[in-house]
Amino acid sequence: MKGAQTVAAHTARRGAPAAPGRAELVKLKPRRDDFGRVVVPARVWLHDADDGDAAPAAEAAAAVDGRWLARLAVGERIDLLDARAAWRRLTVVEIHAGAAVLECERSVHLVASTRLRVLRQGDDQPFTTVVALAAAGGTSRTAARLPQG
Q1: Which domains does the chain have, with CATH numbers?
Q2: Tell me: the pLDDT tens digits for 92-107?
Q3: In angstroms, rounded to a whole number, what is the distance separating the alpha carbons of residues 84 and 62?
């Protein structure tokens, strides 16, 4: 899909093996009109890490813990700190068996170690971590070295 971009270091584009300290990165980008207004939000398909479902109508697929995923509800908000250390808030817009679709009106840079936190009162397990990541229409590629933090 046009909105998802895989970012890659020069060596990764040439097919060289990934160096230690590098991570897979998928950039989710909302579509905007000529005035910069969001016309189509960025979408990510969360699915159970034990299930290999495809990502229909989403720019990327991210595998997470199935028990955490099963407790999500439409309208809930998910906070994360993306690969650029930017705080992003995504909203659950669809729930499917073993999956959910999240949207965001800002660009999000996801890596396989991104922690997701559901904003829910009294939740005893609000966090999960992305364990695998792929861009729609193919797999993500190795990105430039990410800052250690």
Answers
A1: 4-8+23-135 (2.40.33.10)
A2: 999 998 899 999 999 9
A3: 18
